[in-house]
Amino acid sequence: MRQPLETEVGIFKRAVQALETTTGLRVQVRNEPQEEGQTDTLIDIVIDDRVIRFAAEIKAVDRFQTLGTIKARAALTPYPLLLIAPYITETTAARCRDLHLPFIDEAGNAYLEATGLFVYVTGKRRPLQVKSASAYRALTPAGLRIVFALLNCPGLAAVPYREIAKEAKVALGSVGEVLADLEGRGHLASERPGSRRLLAPERLQEEWVTHYPIKLRPKLNPRRFTAPAPDWWRGQDARQYHAYWGGEIAAEKLTGYLKPARVTLYVGGRPDRLILANRLRPDVNGEIEILEAFWSTDEKYGGLDVSYPENVAPPLVVYADLLVTTDPRNIETAKLIRDRYLTQVLPPV
Question: Is it the case that residue 36 has pLDDT exceeding 70?
């Protein structure tokens, strides 16, 4: 059974205590393995002789746009998901309520809704000790590139900074700050030089997936197009354009489960040849999205089976693409990809 990171334990304890102080509710904490969820921590709200159970998801959330991804992952848990954050603003709280996504924070703000239970507390001030998520260097665009490289290439955490910068395609100066942030938050262990390793990488994976759509994806020069025929992509060899299928096309190729309605392509270099060859027309509402490939494409993705298609984006990218749509079928397919591929690229702990 996975154990929460030390920093997460503090957030969790302070938020639960704040909930009890603010509302007078009685809270019982359980730790049980969950077959389907991303966390092992269960929380029971006890009302008279009735128990309302939630699965805890501890996240640093500072933009309400990230909530859609968190809500999508709620479909993968056996109990209603409860977001536990350092601080939830009034705007974010309102968005949580719209999404029916329960939350509690360290200030005592809360939204809980179930049969016989309704709590909605907002406007309490951010505690002095609570940082904004934007203060974490690993959650900046460069930080997310570095974290992705560490997750995607087992053993990369232990190599010199210069090699990490090359693999992540970032400036050398950003590597030390990001690794220090990861170590300070309990994601990285560094007992001696050359021995750095990720701790609980599955948790870092989910943090990356939460923040990628908002912090990094918009920086990849996304452009939308439409094509003369809806099935133009069938039979296409994306490799001739130095391109990689993402999203729904990638999901179909990896699982055979999804019938794609939207096309996502990550291109390493200029996409002009791909656009001209397939007569794609710019369209802000088009079903085709082309982005820059942000990962190193020199080598096979670390740890993946040799049968993984060479013209498909890394599974963590595909997983994030599917979740951000919040489409139920895409979420179901994302779970297949997570179970089939993502555990293969996690570094050993």
Answer: no
How does residue 206 score in pLDDT terms, banded at 50, 70 and 90? confident
Task: Indicate the Cα dihedral angle 320, 327, 41, 125, nearest 10°.
Answer: 80
Q: Which two tokens stand for residue 77?
A: 């848990």
The 10s digit of each residue's pLDDT in 105-153 is 999 999 999 888 999 999 999 887 666 655 788 999 999 999 999 998 8
Cβ(152)–Cβ(314) below 8 Å: yes
Strands 50-58 and 41-47, how do they pair? antiparallel
| Alpha-carbon separation of residue 312 from 5, 184, 266, 295, 324 (angstroms) | 32, 34, 9, 12, 18
Q: Are strands 41-47 and 26-31 parallel, antiparallel or unpaired?
A: antiparallel
**Prediction pTM value:** 0.78
**What does the pLDDT read at residue 38?**
40
Question: If you write DSSP's letter for every residue of 109-140 in order, what string do you get?
Answer: -EEEEETTEEEEE--PPPPTTPPPGGG-GGGS
Find, among 303, 334, 304, the residue nearest to 320 by Cα. Answer: 334
- Specify the DSSP class assigned to residue 348: P
Q: Quick one: tokens of 289?
A: 């999205």
Cα(290)–Cα(308) distance, integer angstroms: 22
Residues 289 and 33: beta-carbon distance below 8 Å: no
Domain 136-217 belongs in CATH node 1.10.10: yes
In the numeric block, which tokens belong to residue 248?
């729904």
Beta strands in the chain (DSSP E): 26-31, 41-47, 50-58, 81-85, 103-105, 110-114, 117-121, 188-189, 197-198, 223-226, 243-246, 263-267, 281-282, 288-292
- 2.60.40, 3.40.50, 3.40.1350, 2.60.120: CATH of 6-121: 3.40.1350
**Which one-letter DSSP state was computed for residue 240?**
G
**Separation between Cα atoms, residue 64 and residue 179, nearest integer Å:** 26
Sequence ranges of the domains in the chain? 6-121, 136-217, 220-345
Helix, strand or coil, per DSSP, at residue 311: coil
pLDDT at residue 166 tops 90: yes
